[in-house]
Amino acid sequence: MKKRFLSLAMSMLLIAGMAAGCSSKPADSGTAVTDTPQATSAPADTQGAAEGTEGTIDGKGTSLTVLCHSSWRTEEANKVFDYVADKYNVKFEFEEVPEGGSGEEFIYAKVQSGEVPDILWFQGAQVSVLNMGEDSFAELSGDWTKDYSDIILESPKQTVNGKLLCAPFGDVTTFGMCYNKKVFTDNNVAIPQTWDELMAACEIFKKAGVTPIFTSGAAGNEWTLQIFSIDSRAKMLLKEQGIFDKLNNHSAKWADDEYSNWMLSEFKGLFDKGYTQDTFLSDTYEDAQQALLTGSCAMYPQATWVYSELAKVAESKDELDNIGMFAIPSKDGSATVAYTETPTGFLVPSAGKNVELAKQIAGALSSKDAMSVYYQNHSGVPSVNGIDVDLLGIPKDAYAMIQAGKTQSQPYMIYSVPSLATDIQAMLAGDKTPKQVLEGTDNDWDTYAKDNKNADWGY
């Protein structure tokens, strides 16, 4: 385990962009009752607080409502909310929705109807503006912004049309191949740099009786199936000059993209070659974590957020450190980099009852002080500068890739891809072809273009 100090230099390795179509984790359905004290107090007089700095905020016991996906309420996140509630004299009342389309549609409808929370903890600025409108959210500011680089704050996850709408919360996320180091060592397998090398490694593991690549395709876990496709966007950006400009202006279609078709075909090929488990359609995200830790599988495509889940079930730091991450190989190795994205975070609906106080509290939740509490209970690569963290296992490897220039930040994508997860699930079940999955993406984008009256789309 090695101490890493995160600075502005690390953040400058990132470029602005957006990853769409991937939820952070699975969630239970339904609306949950908050485990923090609820209150029915009237909105506070926040004028005095609005004129001060975050350190002078007095929420006067006001209860602020927070709408979010239920799975985002992790132990480390809850500690931040508790810290801010105590420091700034506010209470938080949570309304939680499941991941996926049903939860997102609920959020969109709620905001558009004007029945809004004080704080929306969601996918970020661009996705929120795309689906709910720019005027739905208040512009943010404050001293807390000084601890973030412009590269983070100006990312479309945080800023749209020059307005900072989303206060970042959490890690710089890296997508890649999680792997059991001991399984690799025991079978004399080196980290693959090309797809052929990855397939050769899979053959070795298969002969050794180890599942080469675990796939968690059970109902409710479809989001985990998107990793290969999302990661491939980094490869496309490097290998296909101007491809995202063409996709964004509708002069190219996803269904015709060579690399996207190749990646999905290879993903399907893992099943044809016996390189994943037969029970993939009933296996879950949690099953994958156990398989990684115990060594019954060698690899699992995922993002750095899985580390927090592994930390809950690992029996020791040594077991946790035994799970590493490497970049998913590109076709020929020339673009073997890991896909990296900036955080989601907190937006303040402009129709809320406590807008000024909510703006300040959103900033307080993202402040370096609050993030210091977060990283006392969490290991990841912070988006905020000046946080001293202990990294091991997956976050350590992800940070090493960032430092070595082996990552590529997300490209700018004009629209999101809500159909991707379930379409890939259908492809793996044999009900869709890779091209049909990509046609679903084109259909998503056509729908967004029509709904947003995109004059440049050719309609």
Automatic annotation (TrEMBL):
Ranges where the record places region Disordered: 26-57
Keywords for the protein's UniProt record, in alphabetical order: Signal, Transport
Pfam families, alphabetized: SBP_bac_1
Residue spans of biased composition, Polar residues class: 31-44
Signal peptide: 1-21
Entries under PANTHER family matching the protein: ARABINOSE-BINDING PROTEIN-RELATED (PTHR43649), OSMOPROTECTIVE COMPOUNDS-BINDING PROTEIN GGTB (PTHR43649:SF29)
Family: Belongs to the bacterial solute-binding protein 1 family.
Protein name: ABC-type glycerol-3-phosphate transport system, substrate-binding protein
Top-level taxonomy: Bacteria, Bacillati, Bacillota, Clostridia, Lachnospirales
